[in-house]
Amino acid sequence: MNIAKYRFELFLLICLVGYGLLYLTPSSYGLALNLFGMQGEGLLWGKPRGIRSDEWTVWTPYMQSLVNNGFGRFNELSMYREDFRGFNALPIHDWALFFKPQMWPFLVFEPARAFSIHHGIIIVAFLIGWKQLFQHLLADKPYASNLAFVLFSLMLFFSSFSQVWWTTLGPLLAATPWLLLTVLKWRRNSVLYYLLLAYVSAVFLLSHTYPPIIITVAYFGVLLLLIHQKNFFSSPSRFTFTAIACVVGTAIAYAYYHEIIPIMSNTVYPGQRVSPPGHTPWWLWLSAIFPYITHSNYTSLTVVNICELGAVSSLLPIMTACYLNYSKLTKAEFKVLAIGGAAFLLFSVWMLVPLPAWFGVPTLFYMVPGQRMVFVVGLLVNYVALYMLVSVGVKLGVKRHFIFFVLLLGVWLLPSLYSDVGWFRKSAWEIFAIVLVLGVAKYAGLSSNQTQTHTTAILAVAFIINFIYFGGFNPGQSAKPIFEVKSSEVVAGLRQKQGQDPRGWLVMQGYRGALLSGVGLNSVATVLTQPKLVFFRELFPEMAEDEFNQVFNRYAHIYLYDGLQPTVPYLDTIQIPIHKVIHKSDQQLLAYYDGEFKGVKKGGFIEMSDLQENRLTLKGWHLSSSSKFLTNINSASVYSYISQSRPDVAQAYQDNNLIHSGFSAVLDLSDEAVATIQQEGVCLVSEDSTYGTRLLTHITAEHELACKRASP
Fold it and tell me: Residue 389 and residue 333: Cα distance in Å, rounded?
């Protein structure tokens, strides 16, 4: 074996060992640690990204919950008894674990180290897989080199799509090249080969069962076969047995999901969601060719968030167009351009043109939102650019440098034409590429194979700019505190509060997603990847069937709010009225105080107060670890009261006992109480052994409901 040919692979495997030893993970869960009183714990570099909420508020908490349940299928610690067997891979100890090799570390190591190695395996599999795939396809080209394929793999890894979706779609993106490579490395109808193909197909489908990527990967695979192995379709035996092997892999995935598929296919969201054609903004489609036009560093230049702008993009297509040695193009290259152009046109039409809806059915595009099509469009464009570069090489020159500079400048300024960013205000790292290219032209001429050196250098420039832009998007986080947080003081306090509820429920606001479930708490607020209709029907028996189905039959983040009826503010969000889930005997009772409030030290704020007829809504925070209030309001009953997480208050006072000092209360008032408030305002006083007696004040002292009895 030629060891030099696999230096990159050996280096990555060594890095994987170090990755596990350091407990590294690219998770943004550090934001959750802040909420649990462990500010900055284990953060090695970078900044956790709140926008990556599907990772740090959903999938990482689900991983924690699975560990807390001993890797069993259901969450026995939750009132919902969530099913962990979902479309996002988890290391459940069942028969399908055989088809989840990235999860095998959980069979050997403690959860924190296994979680780290799991992420490391995905990164290594991605880099090696894409490098091996294109090396297999293009190694015989005149200007190909091992380094060129390494750089191309790194460039794909640091593209915006890979980085912004990494901790969600990473497993699927890493499995993709291995499936394509297995299909393309045909072994003359060998039984072992087809067994391997069936296994890899199942691994691919179970890595993250996300139809938009799976469907577009199939299209890209057909494109590679048409270009590199056209005899595949003229060989009945190979075509048939390959299809059978892939069907077997699909059957394995179906057998695993057979209970879930009918449930999810009948949901309002995402089961009944249909992606219409022609709804993709032109600038998002164009970003697959002209990168960085939708953002300035990590700031979106549009109304869409930075993750939804992710594309498999780089400067490689632009540089190839400017520096390709067109005089050496042959029929083979024109064939690639024709096939690639046809595929590009098909994808682009779906993204941009309002076609008849029926077009999406035979193509399966109705399951591919246009903004997800940027994955395959960008992959296609960059693959064609790579093919051209290693086939005919590049040709540098003053005129080409000038054209590249003008084009680069135009692309850099383009966002100022369609967005609010001012001229010359957008990040300009892409302009640095012209400096690198000029450096290549000046100093790479000493190589014995100058064209190959220039070709590889062009790939290096594309990788460097991608790395500058997105190399720091994901933070370096230690996995240890992720699995130690359940033993923190804050979680212990929440567990105590949960124990005070005779049902064993935790009713708490301020924690997003499934964070509370992840640390082992029986929280009403969580994320349900599958609807729980029986549970909610018991809470809302009065709702009409159609209305009930529209609200609850969906994948959803469950939030608690002060309203009267359940609502769906977003496709993946259900708001539950607090009064429906709070235990009445555990509600806060206000103690009436008939004395003066003058002279009481101030501490805490009433941030929102609203009096509507005989109902008063209050929100704010107080300097107390309990919820004891003295008030001037008599003849009032508590309709609902709930504590809220306020890590900002705890951090300001350097006291984790205040992390749940927030509150949201709704009071039903007598006519006498309403008259008192109209005359005296709302006076609330908290009592605490550490902070003493403190008067809560309105943020605006002149507020109409401010406590007048406390005025000098």
Answer: 10
Contacts of 692 (CB under 8 A, 6+ apart): 601
SS3 519: coil
- What is the model's pTM? 0.91
- In 156-242 the beta strands, taken as DSSP E runs, fall at none
149-167 average pLDDT score: 96
Only one residue has tokens 């967005």, namely 419
Only one residue has tokens 């549009």, namely: 302
CA distance 227 to 137: 10
Cis upstream peptide for 270 (omega within 30°)? yes
Backbone conformation region of residue 100, classed left if phi is above 0, alpha if psi is from -120 to 50, else beta = beta
Distances (CA, A) of 462 to 373, 383, 679: 22, 13, 69
Give the tokens for residue 65.
């919950």
493 to 342, 375, 490, 605, 618: CA distances (angstroms): 61, 45, 5, 23, 24
Note the helical H segments in 366-414: 374-392, 398-413
Beta-carbon contacts of 162 under 8 Å, excluding residues fewer than 6 positions away, are 126, 156, 170, 173, 310, 312
Token pair recorded at residue 119: 């992420």
Answer positive or negative: Cα dihedral of 522, 525, 528, 534: positive
State the residue for tokens 């609850």: 552
Place of tokens 């046809």: 342
For residue 21, the one-letter residue type is L
Q: Residue 598 is encoded by which pair of tokens?
A: 């003058």
Q: How high is the pLDDT of residue 640?
A: 80
What amino acid is encoded at 26 in this protein? P
Angstrom distance (rounded) from CA 471 to CA 479: 20
Closest CA to 81 of 531, 488, 463: 531
Nearest to 171 by CA among 246, 104, 95, 101: 101
**SS3 of residue 168 by DSSP:** helix
CA distance 52 to 28: 7
Could you tell me if 269 and 529 are in contact, meaning their C-beta atoms sit under 8 angstroms apart? no
Q: Which residues, 6+ apart, have CB-to-CB distance to 113 below 8 Å?
A: 20, 23, 105, 479
Strand partners, 618: 609, 665
Coil/strand/helix, residue 643: strand
Write out pLDDT tens, residues 535-588: 999 999 999 999 999 999 999 999 998 888 999 999 999 999 988 898 765 445
Task: Look at residues 458, 340, 466 and name the one whose alpha carbon lies nearest to residue 404.
Answer: 458
- pLDDT given for residue 1 in this prediction: 55
Which amino acid appears at position 511 of this protein? Answer: Y
**Bridge partners of 570?**
573
**Distance (Å) of CA 173 to CA 98, 176, 178, 375, 518:** 19, 5, 10, 10, 26
Please compute the mean of the pLDDT values over residues 105-118 and round it to a whole number.
97
pLDDT digits (tens, 9 = 90+) for 675-707: 999 888 898 898 888 898 899 998 887 888 988
Distance CA(539)–CA(544), nearest Å, equals 13
- Asked if 707 and 630 count as a contact pair (C-beta separation under 8 A), the reply is no
Nearest to 149 by CA among 379, 410, 594, 455: 455
Helix 374-392 vs helix 331-352: crossing angle, to nearest 10: 170
How many beta carbons lie within 10 A of that of residue 342, not counting itself? 12
- Partnered with residue 697 across adjacent β-strands are 605
Name the DSSP letter for residue 554.
B
